[in-house]
Write a structure and sequence with these properties.
homodimer; alpha/beta; TIM Barrel; 2 domains; eight-stranded parallel β-barrel; two-stranded antiparallel ribbon; 9% strand; ThiC/BzaA/B (chains A, B); ThiC/Bza_core_dom (chains A, B)
Chain lengths: 427, 427
């Protein structure tokens, strides 16, 4: 008989679960050390007890940087088959998490199918579905609807939910007193703000936070505390609204942990490179070491069409400074919903950022892959280079399109190949 | 009558040249301050007196990060017309420097045409042309050939030359005593190493460095001191060979400055993110504040096909830490010579890195562009967003391919657009 509720509850009791064992092995980490981190909250293992197909992953201190992919059905893209194709591609490419942002149409059916087929952890933003599923006007949504939707998602097996509990009356006052260039750009956060203004109520996720925690504990849903005030442009980053909300998220984190509910904190957004390290530090301090989940950050606002690159720069810096979980950004960001191709580009760019950061923060064995590639290069072993490439198909295609003077080398240097020259000279 | 030889010579005499005036205006910098930096050597303005079409740019302390594009004719790509098309595209895209790496065929004719049409500064690696132009076997090249080629390039109007003067007997001993996974990957550096091994001579650029300086002073060629020992993989970075060579480059820098020759120092290569800042610091200390010109650095070895991204991450971090000049990296790196399309992708990725770094290091007015974009976004002014985009064509194409619920917003959020919701709620 199971003698614990959540992974955190087990960890606090000193129980090592199968889930912890799986994660520890993947991370080359002693399972007892992992258990301690889960008990403290510095590592979260989002694994809803109803998500039977899950292949669990940990997010947090000392672990490999993880990646999330967003998808889902909406009014502009109400094609579940195409979104399921994205799911298959994302799983094939080894992403650790998928967030289902569906907000229109047969959201429940889509979510259930997704959870069934996915070994990756599944996240949702229940507030989207409040509007998508109930099909009510904003002002007609009742406070109890917000919590009811979390329970529904929990029953379905969702592993983590984004909850904008920090966008309460206090946060909205701070926001109104500190004007921003871009106002609010968080979709869920802006919906909560608008709903509060329309109804006069406080944020029900904040007001009934203890009820929310009871639901999370029942299914072991990890709370991903959303940042309604995440900056939408460099001009608004690290401002009063953002930090005010972060303080609240830190307070909520302690309340969640007291009820053995696992927590992840969501973060920016857009910010200049020189602010990233301080933002990671602030999150780790104000939120007591809870895992940090960042969207980007995008280090410039001027590159629509290339935000997978602006996001890779920011994500790599954030993760190397201690962020634990990267939400992918695709070239379609700020322009349209991503296609499957956009998604692939976004996944690769984010993978590069995560891996570069894992090397920098000396995650065990992260460098092995790079050293194998260097060995293949100095051996001019092209097949091995392709096998090891992050995208073997693209690497092969590039070389196949080159006209080669010599099959050993590449067209970049031809017979002037440094590797060949030195090999010859060292004979 | 002109009373100075090089820009540095003028600066030391307290003369403000037209070239300095142009650069100071572009940089929003007081021209007297710029003159001081040129006199000290912390800023270089590569502008050969024979390059009549030049639109001068400064490289160094307090200035906007500059970008270089590599191209040129070689045995594998002996198509001057295609390379000249690359030149036109690169100039259109606003690159500040083009390095002509031609090493086979009608190199002289190509170089002359390039210099004539280019407002951007032009760099070369004369040692490539020693082999390309003289068409001799490595062992048959005479020490005097190396210097003669620099004079030839100077006469033609080349603004900066990469010279691997640091790969001398001492450096090659250090290299042999400290085995590396990837040996040497610098093309020019490996050629010098191989030539030294074959002939038994020391590096003529090192041995006759004073003669080299006289040639440079005559035309005001900026010396770009190459790093033969730049790491070719993460495993070899910041090792004895690399730092030994950097010490020599620092010594040569002082000798060059004593003869009023401007200097830029070339740097890695491949290295993990956590080593970049220390490498910039080392260069600035050991080379007395000379401008730093980096290739990448690539922060992981595993992403052939995406090295414009690994290079953008490294370049952004390097430039924000004080590197002054980024050599672009294209997706074709490690695979083949870049096509025009590869070049475009490389330029945009490098531009993003340079701009993100300029924001981070608070280069005057760098943020204006971003703030204008944020303003356009909050106004949902799509035409303005496209005008401001780093690549308006790609941004437009992305949006045109989306099916839109509403022309105001984008398909990412549709009617759930945060910007619209908040605007409504704030009414």
């Amino acid at each position: 008989m199971q003698t614990y509720t959540t992974q955190m509850n087990a960890a606090k009791q000193g129980i090592i679960t199968d889930v912890m064992r799986t994660v520890a092995e993947k991370e080359h980490m002693d399972v007892e050390l992992l258990r301690e981190k889960v008990a403290k909250g510095t590592v979260a293992i989002p694994a809803n007890r109803n998500h039977l197909s899950i292949d669990p992953e940990g997010v947090g201190e000392g672990l490999r940087t993880k990646m999330n992919v967003n998808l889902g059905i909406s009014k502009d893209c109400n094609d579940p088959e195409m979104e399921l194709e994205k799911v298959r591609v994302a799983l094939d490419m080894g992403v650790e998490a998928i967030m289902d942002l569906s907000n229109y149409g047969k959201t429940e059916q889509f979510r259930k199918e997704l959870i069934k087929m996915s070994g990756a952890m599944i996240g949702t933003v229940p507030v989207y579905d409040v509007f998508g599923f109930f099909e009510k006007e904003l002002k007609d949504v009742r406070p109890e609807d917000f919590l009811a939707m979390v329970r529904k998602h929990g029953e379905d097996g969702v592993d983590f939910v984004t909850i904008h509990a920090g966008m309460n009356k206090r946060a909205s006052e701070t926001f109104l007193e500190n004007p921003r260039l871009m106002n609010l750009v968080s979709r869920g956060g802006s919906l909560m703000f608008a709903w509060m203004r329309l109804t006069g109520y406080d944020n029900p996720y904040f007001e009934y936070f203890d009820d929310l925690l009871d639901i999370c504990a029942e299914f072991d849903i990890t709370l991903s505390l959303g940042d309604a005030c995440r900056p939408g442009g460099l001009a608004d980053s690290t401002d009063a609204s953002q930090i005010q909300e972060l303080i609240t998220l830190g307070e909520l984190t302690k309340r969640a942990w007291a009820k053995d509910v696992q927590v992840i904190i969501e973060g920016p957004g857009h910010m200049s490179m020189d602010e990233i390290k301080a933002n990671v530090l602030l999150e780790k301090k104000l939120c007591h070491g809870a895992p940090f989940y960042v969207l980007g950050p995008l280090v410039t606002d001027v590159a629509p069409g290339y935000d997978h690159i602006t996001g890779a720069i920011g994500g790599a810096i954030a993760a190397s400074a201690g962020a634990d979980f990267l939400c992918y950004v695709t070239p379609a960001e700020h322009l349209r919903l991503p296609t499957v191709e956009d998604m692939k580009e976004g996944i690769i760019a984010t993978k590069i950022a995560a891996h570069a950061a894992d090397i920098a923060k000396k995650t065990p064995h992260a460098r092995d892959w790079d050293n194998q590639m260097s060995k293949a290069r100095v051996d001019l072993d092209w097949n091995r280079m392709f096998e090891l490439a992050i995208d073997p198909t693209k690497a092969r295609a590039y070389r196949e399109h080159a006209e080669l003077e010599d099959e050993t080398t590449c067209s970049m240097c031809g017979k002037m190949c440094a590797i060949l020259n030195v090999k010859e000279a060292l004979k």
